[in-house]
Amino acid sequence: MTAIGVPLVASSVGLLFVLLLVREVLRADPGNQIMVQISEAIQQGARAFLKREYSYVSILVVVVAGDDGAELRDVVTSVDDLRARIKYL
Q1: Staple partner for 35: which of 21, 31, 80, 81, CB 3.0–4.6 Å?
Q2: What is the pLDDT averaged over residues 34-39?
Q3: What percentage of residues in the chain have a pLDDT greater than 90?
Q4: What φ, ψ does residue 2 adopt, rounded to 5°?
Q5: Are 13 and 36 in a shared domain?
Q6: Are 46 and 86 found together in one domain?
Q7: What stretches of 1-89 show up as alpha helix (H) in DSSP?
Q8: What is the Cβ-side half-sphere exposure of residue 32, based on CA atoms within 13 angstroms?
């Protein structure tokens, strides 16, 4: 196989496995009313966490992408500087 063939086959097998697992989970009984309520609460919390996480990550992406000539070490230095400043708050 070529250098591209092995990853393509491995990723295809992995995606097929994931599809089978998704199908199995979606066909499963959701449980009683209490289990459904707990599941909905977990989903709501996960959505809130991801919304907050994406807002912070998007700010970092804009800052890094907006600095046209920035080197990676400049970004790392600024992150280390930010950590040092936060430490003393």
Answers
A1: 31
A2: 95
A3: 52
A4: -80, 175
A5: no
A6: yes
A7: 5-27, 33-66, 72-87
A8: 1
Q: What is the pLDDT of residue 57?
A: 86
- Would you state the structure tokens that stand for residue 79, as one six-digit string? 């992150």
Tokens 């600024």, residue located: 78
| Separation of alpha carbons 65 and 23, rounded Å | 39
Tell me: the pLDDT tens digits for 41-79?
A: 999 999 999 999 988 888 887 777 765 555 555 555 666
Q: Smallest Cα–Cα separation from 82: which of 60, 51, 66?
A: 60
Place of tokens 């977990």: 42
Q: What is the pLDDT at residue 18?
A: 97
Q: Label residues 41-56 b or e (16+ Cβ within 10 Å = b).
A: eeeeeeeeeeeeeeee
